[in-house]
Write a structure and sequence with these properties.
By secondary structure, the chain is an all-alpha fold. The protein is built from 17 helices and two strands. Strand 1 (319-320) and strand 2 form a beta hairpin. Helix 1 (3-28) crosses helix 17 (408-419), helix 6 (114-140) crosses helix 9 (192-199) and helix 14 (327-351) runs antiparallel to helix 15. The protein is globular, with a radius of gyration of 21 Å. It starts with a helix and ends with a helix.
Length: 420
């Protein structure tokens, strides 16, 4: 068997198996039917956050914790977890971790395989523990229970968005809780390899990362624009800034929490949020989306093509983070964009056979492929899809998995099976 086909099929098989296992608690407790249980499990492990649970408050506390824990497991990746806790898988382990890593250019830590996975998980644990401790300060202030703090920690660090409340973070109406979650949504949108390199003293300053500079720059500009737009809406700059900072972080990190009904915001603010949903976070983070590095790479490549048109004989090289990027990487990013657009178009088409309008089905598909969980239109901001039919839910499950595995592993696994 071709080694690459084996890797693609292994990654896909592990993800499918873990999603099926994750559906069992919902089925055995009688909480959800088989289709809805699978949907909730896929949405959890892919860190999407779309849901078919109409009232999370009606679920047992342990099931709510499990539900958010699937985000935490899926955030760093099932394969990375296996590499961290199981015996060395051999030479193929590097390909397994590389296949699941996000973004067009793999980080330095990927090649270390099992040791890298263990180091990244140690960082993941520290960030999780720190956020939980900070949210527990909110518990002391009466903002949330310890269980709620744990649920929102798992969902935030995994950039998933499942909440124990139907109103999400809006329920708590707490500036402190909102601020903590905003900060950690952005921290978890950063390439975890940067944290590792800083820890190993191989990177003197995070500012050396071009992708990080662009990600933070885009976020700051988005917050500023939305704040200006919302200032008249909220009657003051402070509330507008807080809402803009939180919702922009939620969209860019693809977490999917909400503190306002942004479907009622001015259209310009909604457009900025949609743009952040498409861009997503950094490669190598728990965030979904198209990825800042991939968008940056395609923009730089387009600029180089324009230069070639003006100066055909000039020799130019596309660089990302100060390093030359191969033509193969650029072509791969370009073909990824094609598949990405086709998946959104196909998903929107299938969902349009349901009873919802175009805005709803389009944003739901975009939310699924980017693993974000935010949606609005006829279903509101909660991302509750209980009204969709079995076909739509099945297509959305496939789209969520395609988005989490960055399209190629799942497509190549299917292609490899068809060729046999």
């Amino acid at each position: 068997m071709n080694n690459r086909n084996f890797v693609f099929r292994t990654v896909t098989s592990v993800w499918l198996a873990i999603c099926v296992l994750g559906a069992l608690p919902y089925i055995f407790t009688g909480t959800l039917g088989i289709t809805d249980a699978l949907f909730e499990s896929v949405s959890g492990f892919t860190t999407t956050g779309l849901t078919v649970v109409t009232r999370p408050e009606s679920l047992p506390s342990w099931l709510l914790v499990f539900r958010s824990f699937t985000h935490w497991i899926g955030g760093m990746g099932v394969i990375a977890l296996l590499l961290a806790i199981l015996p060395r898988l051999g030479a193929g382990s590097a390909q397994l971790m590389s296949t699941e890593s996000t973004g067009p250019v793999k980080g330095k830590t990927v090649a270390i395989t099992r040791q890298a996975a263990k180091s990244l998980y140690a960082i993941y644990f520290v960030i999780t523990a720190l956020m939980f401790a900070l949210l527990c300060v909110g518990v002391a202030g009466g903002g949330m229970t310890v269980t709620d703090a744990l649920i929102h920690t798992f969902s935030t660090v995994g950039t998933g968005g499942f909440s124990s409340k139907g109103l999400s973070v809006t329920h708590y109406d707490s500036v402190y809780i909102t601020t903590v979650i905003t900060v950690f949504m952005m921290l978890c949108s950063v390439n975890f390899s940067l944290y590792y390199l800083i820890l190993m003293r191989k990177l003197k300053s995070p500012g050396q990362s071009e992708e990080l500079r662009w990600m933070l720059g885009i976020y700051v500009v988005a917050v500023a624009v939305i704040t200006l737009v919302l200032r008249p809406y909220y009657g003051g700059a402070s509330t507008a800034l807080r809402q803009a900072a939180f919702q922009s972080a939620s969209a860019m990190s693809t977490t999917g929490f909400f503190t306002a009904d942004f479907g009622l915001w001015p259209t310009s603010a909604q457009v900025v949020l949609i743009g952040l949903m498409f861009i997503g976070g950094s490669a190598g983070s728990t965030a979904g989306g198209f990825k800042v590095s991939r968008a940056l790479l395609l923009c730089k490549s387009a600029r180089q093509e324009l230069k070639k048109l003006l100066r055909p004989n000039a020799v130019s090289v596309t660089r990302l983070g100060g390093k030359a990027v191969s033509e193969t990487a650029i072509q791969t990013a370009g073909s990824y964009l094609v598949f990405y657009v086709l998946i959104i178009a196909f998903g929107t088409l299938i969902l349009s056979f349901d009873k919802y309008n175009f805005e709803t089905v389009f944003l739901t598909t975009v939310s699924a492929v980017n693993n974000i969980g935010l949606s609005w239109g006829e279903i509101g901001t909660s991302g509750n899809l209980s009204g969709f039919g079995v076909l739509s839910k099945s297509v959305l499950m496939a789209v969520m998995l395609l988005g989490r595995l960055e399209i190629y592993p799942l497509l190549m696994a299917v292609y490899g099976i068809k060729r046999k």
